[in-house]
Amino acid sequence: MPRAPEPGATVDQWLAYLEALHPTEIDLGLDRVLLVLRRLFPGKPEARIITVGGTNGKGTTVAAIERLLLSRGRKVGAYTSPHLQRYNERVRLNGEDVSDAALVGAFEAVEAARRDVSLTYFEFGTLAAFLLFRDAGIEDWILEVGLGGRLDAVNVLDADLAIITSVDLDHTAWLGDDRDQIGFEKAGILRYRQNAIYGDEDPPRSVLQQAAAQKVRLYRFGEAYRLESDDSGLRRVVTAGWQVALPGTTLPERSLAAAVQAIRLLEPEMSPEAIHRALADVRVAGRFEQLLSSPALYVDVGHNPHAARWLRERIAALSVRGKVHAVYACLSDKDTAGVVAAMAAVVDRWFLAPLDVPRGLDIDTLVRRVEPVVGDKAVVERAGSVAEAIEAAREVAGENDCIIVFGSFFTVAEARSAVPG
User: Fold this and answer.
1) What span, in angstroms and rounded, lies between the C-alpha atoms of 381 and 8?
2) Whose CA is closest to 357, among 338, 335, 374, 334?
3) Which of 168, 188, 292, 407 fits a 20 to 30 Å CA distance from 56?
4) Cβ within 8 Å of residue 85, ≥6 positions away
5) Mind listing the UniProt keywords for this protein, alphabetically (predicted)?
6) Residue 100: CA atoms inside 13 Å, Cβ hemisphere, count?
């Protein structure tokens, strides 16, 4: 077993320890984290628990609910993953990233409580986030599921409101290879007779079955609430004769709509006008985020076909006058062919790069996966890194062109480090 960091250790030293503590990166199950949780918390935290799961759209949904609740004067904590630049991004206290000192203190407390229990990196960090929320007097805990739902570490706490943003194919090695199996895992965050939201069309049968078995009041997109457009093209969330105008944004509208439905349940006295104002302040790093102009350069963390289809629609809506250049790098367990097929209609030139991280896909394998899908419809080039691919794309792009960098949180993190400003 690795030795725990000494007093005065840095966040990076603690993270290195967490990475070495458990034999595998992903080890789904609640037994370990429950055991340590009971040592840290004698009962359920005195807070409102909002758990957000789903294949895509979780980050935007969390950020929108967080902003809405903060605008009500609530004390709000948000726990998300993964991070882009610094681990501290994963824990936000009243809208601010947690400090190094507070984070180290929480790590030390979890280490003291776990004794001989082996925790994964994510489990350890989740318990630390719970402690940080408790010690800061947080009233609303917004918890983003890391993987799946039923056996994810955040699911050790019973949700007062559960949100499933969408269900599609991803992480099939752990969750199953069809929507019903994956939906069953996602629906594990539902709780008996508690409210829940499903934020997409066509929920898998397994989600509906779980909701019925748990006697959950399930607010479904398209039924309990929906999106409409007026004659001017303004988009509105409509629910039970009540509506909110969405601000102009590049964020996923269905994620914002799910957040609106959530706030109707959590804070029913909040006015449509106040909701609109709060939503205008929502920002999500890495979600169709523009880093440069002329040529425009966007980054997006989308990494599966469902997310790629949304990204394709966003690019199509830009009505780019020139060409679209894609910088793409991904993890080895992703549906590369499905992602590329979803994006092929809007991409003129591909710049492929490897990811030098665990499970990162090497350049030769990436090229072999992409070329048969692209065929002769677009140019495919290879680069030694994401930074090199971006540089190559910028060299050939005209001022009316567009560059989109996507494929993984790791891809976006490299891009944000490589692009000036």
Assistant:
1) 47
2) 334
3) 292
4) 413, 416, 417
5) ATP-binding, Folate biosynthesis, Ligase, Magnesium, Metal-binding, Nucleotide-binding
6) 9
CATH T-level fold of 11-279: UDP-N-acetylmuramoyl-L-alanine:D-glutamate ligase (3.40.1190)
What's the fold here for domain 289-418?
Protein-Tyrosine Phosphatase; Chain A (3.90.190)
Centroid of chain to Cα 225: 22
**Residue type present at position 81:** S
Helices (H) and strands (E) in the chain, counts: 15, 17
- Give CA–CA dist 105/332, Å, rounded: 35
* CA 187/CA 204 separation, integer angstroms: 10
| E runs forming strands in 222-357 | 226-229, 235-239, 242-245, 289-292, 296-300, 324-328, 349-352
Strand partners, 163: 52, 197
Residue 177: Cβ-neighbour burial (10 angstroms; 0-12, 13-18, 19+): exposed
SS3 label, residue 281:
coil
- Taking only the tens place, the pLDDT of each residue in 218-250 is 999 999 999 999 878 889 999 988 899 999 888
The phi and psi torsions of 206 (rounded to 5 degrees) equal -65, -35
Domain range annotation of the chain: 11-279, 289-418
d(CA 104, CA 7): 9
Q: Which of 181-185, 196-200, 331-335, 357-361 has the highest mean pLDDT?
A: 196-200
Please tell me the distance from the alpha carbon of residue 122 to that of residue 147, in angstroms, as a whole number: 10
Q: Which of 18, 146, 126 is nearest to 77 (CA)?
A: 126
> Mean pLDDT over residues 100-107, rounded?
98
How far are the Cα atoms of 21, 102, 229, 285, 323 from residue 154, in angstroms, in the given order? 19, 20, 36, 22, 43
Note the pTM of the prediction, 2 decimals.
Answer: 0.94
Contact 283, 62 (CB under 8 A): no
CA dihedral 231, 234, 239, 240 (to 10 degrees): -40
Q: Is 309 helix (H, G, I), strand (E, B) or coil?
A: helix
Buried b / exposed e along 52-70 (16+ C-beta atoms within 10 A): bbbbbbbbbbbbbbbbbbb
What is the separation of C-alpha 107 from the centre of its chain, rounded to a whole number of angstroms?
23
Tell me whether domains 11-279 and 289-418 share a fold: no
Q: Which two three-digit tokens encode residue 211?
A: 């909701």
Q: Give just the sign of the alpha carbon dihedral 88, 91, 97, 102.
A: negative
